[in-house]
Amino acid sequence: MRQEYTGDETASERRRRRRRERPSFREQLQGLSWWQVALVLLPLVMMFIGGALGGGIGGGAAVGNLSLARKSMPSAVKFLVMACVCAVAFTVFFVLEYAIRSVWAPTPYVASQPGTGYAPVVVNTPATPSPLSTCWTQTWAPRPVAMNRPVVIHATGAEVSWPAYANITCNPANDLAAYEIHRSTRPDFTPSAATLVATVNANDTSFVDRTAPATSDPRAAYYVYMVAVRTRSGQVVAGATQLVRLPEPGQTELVLQTDKAASLSAKSPDTIVDPNGYSLTVSPDIGGEGAERAVFEFGPLTALPRGAFVTDARLNVACHGTNSATISVYGLTRTFDASVATWNSAASGVRWRHPGGDYTTPSGSSMAGSSELNPCDFDATAIVRGWTDLRSAEHGLLLRFGNESSSLGYGAYEAGDTGNPDDRPALVVTYE
């Protein structure tokens, strides 16, 4: 029954009255035929299979069908229209759900069974659940943490870091209890009490290992690190490993990877050859096509302590080629922008003083090209020592053929891939 109200009713009172007078959803279904009620309620199934996403789409479709059911139109037409609304709603839901889930691809990893201590088994991890899905619609396995590549390595161990663990399973038993740091001399080791170096508080995401046996034998100084997750249920989730070579006693090594690199092409002097640095190329002038050079930028060497003496510095790139001529590394004397650098320009609106890059004389030794894919080291010790004496002198490195006139008619040389962490160029500095 509608309430009587006076003309001096306020706006807020009027809104409250209208809400009280508005029929409930159940009341709105009264008077509809059974098939109309079924088509109104059918989209609401998505609320139970699709969480927030399903609830939003299903609720909207249900409201739409309720409005259609109240309209005056032939029953056959009304049935077809309401059925189409249901079909469209379910189609949109499944398409969006698939698109969201495809962002998180399945990843195989190693995890141990609860209650068995260190007994890891290989588990095929399903995709990470959509943030819009309910927890109970899928059974998710705990996801491991991916250890970062160590940047600082001491003679007694590496400084290890990793991203924080996230429990994607919605199961409290899989909450983080602690991190475990493991170290072994075997690349395929299984985490165990014998490989456990330390247990780290759940709030920490870094650890400095000072317990690795120091050695002056370079063949015995390789260790494999792993960060494992121990859950509240006792399950151990083993992560990926990182291979580390320890420097000699008394020394520390910095491994500075870069994604700021570019190729410079004399053939296309004003063209950005590869703005992402995914395929760095060094080559001589082959058949009049123009030489190519590669430049690398590592930023300020803030991790290198002032007063440290650099004993060795090398540019490390994953490389292969088909020219037996030598390649040399040079220190740049002008800062560049890897995203826009060309043969003629170091940055937007800034030209090289000398086309092809401004650089010093070559540093140390150079090396010959190889047809095999190898990690190639270029001695940059003299250049980096100059940077430690004058920090403002650090502008990056350049690779080029010592003699860019090719008599062979071939000689392209791949010099790293910044898009692949395993092939990303790195400056490896050893100091004491």
Structural description of this entry:
With 432 residues, the protein is α+β, with helices and mostly antiparallel strands. It folds into 3 domains: 11-102, no CATH class; 108-246, Immunoglobulins (Immunoglobulin-like, Sandwich), CATH 2.60.40.10; 255-431, Jelly Rolls (Sandwich), CATH 2.60.120. Helices cover 20% and strands 27% of the residues. It is built from 7 helices and 23 strands. It has helices at residues 11-21, 25-29, 34-41, 46-49, 51-70, 75-102, 381-389, and strands spanning 107-112, 120-125, 152-154, 157-161, 176-184, 196-200, 206-208, 222-231, 236-238, 241-245, 252-257, 261-265, 281-282, 292-296, 310-321, 326-331, 345-347, 350-351, 367-368, 374-379, 397-401, 413-415, 426-431. The strands form 4 sheets. Strands 3, 4, 7, 11, 13, 15, 20, 22 and 23 form a 9-stranded antiparallel beta sheet that branches. The longest helix has 28 residues, at 75-102. Mean pLDDT is 80; it is low at 104-138.
What percent of residues adopt helix (DSSP H or I)?
Answer: 10-25%
CATH architecture designation of the largest domain: Sandwich
Give the helices and strands as they follow along the chain.
HHHHHHEEEEEEEEEEEEEEEEEEEEHEEE
The percent range for strand residues is: 25-35%
Shape: elongated
Q: Give the integer mean of the pLDDT values.
A: 80
Query: Runs with pLDDT <50, length 5+?
Result: 104-138
